[in-house]
Design goal:
- The chain is mainly alpha-helical and about 210 residues long.
- The protein folds into 3 domains: about 1-40, no CATH class; about 40-115, Helicase, Ruva Protein, domain 3, CATH 1.10.8; about 120-210, Arc Repressor Mutant, subunit A.
- Helices cover about 50% and strands about 0% of the residues.
- It is built from 9 helices and 2 strands.
- It has a two-stranded parallel sheet.
- Helix 7 (about 165-180) crosses helix 8 and helix 8 (about 185-195) crosses helix 9.
- The longest helix is centred in the C-terminal third of the chain and has 18 residues, at about 145-165.
């Protein structure tokens, strides 16, 4: 019996280059290459990100039965400027992570998203003068001096880059220092960092710094 099928194939490899290098069969390439469609990576079509954010936010708030009202400005800036090596699948995973970590009826902030060592532009991070990682609700605290904080942040970032400190090492040090200052009290340490106790416990467990 004969079968009538249509093959739809996808790859993130340059097949023409693979054929020339001898890594892909030329005859198979010409059999598949009937109507090629090139889809640019997400980093080359950032205008799509806001639409995808709304789509994935609706998807995961329904899946987890949780009300999350949206994204902070800082989270949107971070998402728009991130390089997206994992393309849309990585974006989808980050938004689900954000929905899980965000407070109920709150917004997704930067600290809810990039928690697995992703390389984020350090200028987007909101750090206090002491180097504490802040949540969105902490950035407008009474008595804060935005101009002075910005200058301190610039100097801190310059020092970090000069010393070759990456974001992963910075976060580990912030967690360790906050817990030490709070003498092991996770609720107090979380307040110092501007995140919830659950978020702090998650980060410590992920890094093997918890119990």
């Amino acid at each position: 019996r004969k079968a009538n099928v249509r093959v739809v194939a996808a790859t993130n490899v340059n097949l023409q280059g693979a054929v020339k290098a001898g890594d892909f069969r030329e005859d198979l390439y010409f059999r598949l290459n009937v109507f090629p469609i090139h889809i640019p990576p997400l980093r080359e079509r950032r205008a799509d990100i806001p639409l995808l954010l709304n789509h994935f936010l609706n998807k995961f708030t329904h899946r987890h039965g949780k009300t999350v009202t949206g994204f902070s400005e800082r989270a949107i800036e971070g998402l728009m400027n991130y390089n997206w090596p994992g393309n849309i699948r990585e974006l989808e995973n980050l938004i689900e992570r954000g929905v899980i970590l965000a407070q109920k009826a709150g917004v997704i902030d930067l600290c809810h998203l990039f928690t697995s060592g992703e390389k984020v532009d350090s200028s987007i991070l909101a750090l206090s003068k002491t180097g504490s990682l802040r949540g969105a609700r902490a950035s407008g605290e009474a008595g804060a001096d935005p101009a002075r904080d910005a200058g301190g942040l610039d100097r801190l970032v310059d020092d970090m880059l000069a010393q070759g400190t990456d974001f992963d090492a910075l976060e580990s040090k912030l967690l360790e220092t906050a817990v030490a200052k709070a003498k092991g009290n996770l609720s107090q340490a979380a307040r110092l960092l501007g995140i919830t106790r659950a978020q702090l416990a998650y980060r410590l467990k992920k890094r093997g710094q918890g119990d």
